[in-house]
């Protein structure tokens, strides 16, 4: 962590999808991060050092991502690294020799699959299991006892599927049907019809954005007014494109940040003001997450005096970190900074209602 070597800059590098399947998630995340760094640089940087934030578009491709991170370390001499989107990309970066040798921590990747990582990764957001847990308790409180599952079968979703089935049992809920996303169109149509007839209180989608879209498009023909729940890394713009905006009515999504449009806390106000000042683009849950991730990283850089890795210092600290009305309780065992989960309902005419 030789910040001195760079003279008056601290280099933060990130390889993330800006133009691939999760491009709009990546672009929002980066917009929030950039905005916070801009606000710090304008007021003199960190101890007089400016943050130089270098973002490389990995298009969601693991090989490109690993190479980009390698270059950021090798050529750009990155002092800190922020993560990309998805388990495949994260795995590729962790397996990269240059990253292994660097001794650095990959901070705040966006991963929606149930997976344990070693101490070289530090997550900002809570785990996918925590999000799923929140969806369950939310609907449990509403007295809903029958749950359908839309399941995109692949290695990444298998653990989450198992987790959901176990959770149903634990809560004495009834699994009222299963639609396998990615099965043939005829099978999906048939399974969707069967699920719709069983009239579940809610359907939980264990799928990526595209898979969720394909499911909604089919299922909504049969069940226009059944709640369908997804998780926070579902990309709503893409979802509306795939399924049609009408299909998004009666959908809910777990969220890992408070409402970005509300002005209840200092950090919400800050995010809103700084985005207006530096970006002039729409606020979203992901611009807000990026903003808070950057603020957390700045705290880590401040904590990392004297050659200590600030991220590791932050991850192991016992006290609560206040970002301005949103608090982090770092957990050494889960390697996660935040436990915040909320729920948002898709609004008629677009956007989320927290």
Structural notes for this entry:
With 354 residues, this protein is an alpha/beta fold. The protein has two domains: 4-126 and 262-341, Response regulator (Rossmann fold); 128-255, Response regulator (Rossmann fold, 3-Layer(aba) Sandwich). It is 43% helix and 18% strand. It has helices at 23-42, 62-74, 87-95, 97-102, 128-141, 155-170, 185-197, 209-222, 236-243, 266-278, 285-303, 310-315, and strands at residues 9-16, 50-57, 80-82, 106-107, 121-122, 146-152, 174-181, 202-206, 227-230, 251-255, 321-322, 327-328, 342-346, 352-353. It has a seven-stranded mixed beta sheet with strand order 7-6-8-9-10-13-14. Helix 2 (62-74) packs across helix 3 and helix 8 crosses helix 9 (236-243). The protein is globular. The two termini are 40 Å apart. 47% of the residues are buried.
What descriptive keywords fit this protein?
354 residues; globular; Rossmann fold; 14 strands; 2 domains; five-stranded parallel beta sheet; alpha/beta; disordered N terminus
Instruction: Write down the Rg.
Output: 21 Å
Q: Roughly what fraction of the amino acids lie in strands?
A: 15-25%
The helix/strand series, from N terminus to C terminus, equals EHEHEHHEEHEHEHEHEHEHHHEEEE
Question: Which consecutive residue ranges, at least 5 long each, have pLDDT under 50?
Answer: 1-5
Order of strands, widest sheet:
7-6-8-9-10-13-14
**Terminal-residue CA separation:** 40 Å
Taking all residues together, what is the mean pLDDT? 93
What is the overall shape? globular
CATH topology of the largest domain: Rossmann fold
Number of helices: 12
Structural class: alpha/beta
CATH class of the largest domain: Alpha Beta
- What is the CATH superfamily classification of the largest domain? Response regulator
| Second-tier CATH architecture of the largest domain | 3-Layer(aba) Sandwich
Major sheet summary line: 7 strands, mixed
Number of domains: 2
Question: How many strand segments?
Answer: 14
Report helical residue fraction: 40-55%
């Amino acid at each position: 962590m030789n910040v001195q070597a760079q003279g008056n800059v601290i280099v933060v590098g990130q390889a993330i999808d800006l133009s691939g399947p999760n491009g709009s998630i990546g672009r929002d995340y980066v917009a929030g991060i950039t905005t916070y760094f801009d606000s710090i640089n304008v007021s003199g940087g960190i101890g007089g050092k400016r943050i130089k934030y270098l973002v490389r578009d990995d298009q969601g491709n693991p090989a490109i991502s690993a190479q980009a991170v390698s270059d950021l370390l090798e050529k750009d001499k990155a002092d800190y690294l922020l993560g990309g989107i998805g388990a495949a990309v994260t795995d590729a970066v962790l397996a990269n020799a240059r990253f292994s040798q660097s001794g650095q921590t990959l901070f705040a990747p966006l991963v929606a699959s149930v997976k344990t990582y070693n101490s070289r990764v530090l997550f900002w957001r809570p785990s996918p299991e925590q999000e799923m847990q929140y969806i369950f308790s939310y609907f449990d409180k509403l007295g809903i006892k029958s749950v359908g599952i839309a399941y995109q079968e692949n290695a990444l979703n298998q653990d989450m599927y198992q987790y959901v089935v176990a959770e149903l049992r634990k809560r004495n809920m009834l699994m009222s049907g299963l639609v396998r996303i990615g099965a043939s169109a005829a099978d999906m149509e048939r399974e969707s019809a069967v699920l719709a007839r069983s009239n579940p209180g809610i359907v939980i989608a264990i799928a990526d954005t595209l898979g969720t879209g394909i499911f909604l498009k089919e299922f909504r023909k049969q069940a226009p007014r059944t709640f369908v729940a997804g998780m926070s890394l579902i990309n709503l713009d893409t979802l509306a494109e795939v399924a049609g905006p009408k299909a998004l009515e009666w959908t809910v999504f777990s969220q890992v940040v408070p409402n970005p449009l509300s002005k209840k806390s200092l950090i919400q106000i800050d995010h809103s003001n700084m985005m207006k000042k530096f970006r002039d683009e729409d606020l979203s849950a992901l611009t807000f997450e990026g903003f808070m991730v950057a603020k957390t990283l700045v705290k880590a850089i401040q904590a990392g005096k004297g050659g200590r890795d600030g991220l590791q210092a932050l991850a192991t600290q016992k006290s609560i970190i206040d970002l301005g009305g949103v608090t982090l309780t770092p957990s050494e065992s889960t390697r996660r900074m935040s436990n915040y989960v909320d729920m948002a309902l898709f609004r008629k005419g677009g956007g989320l209602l927290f």
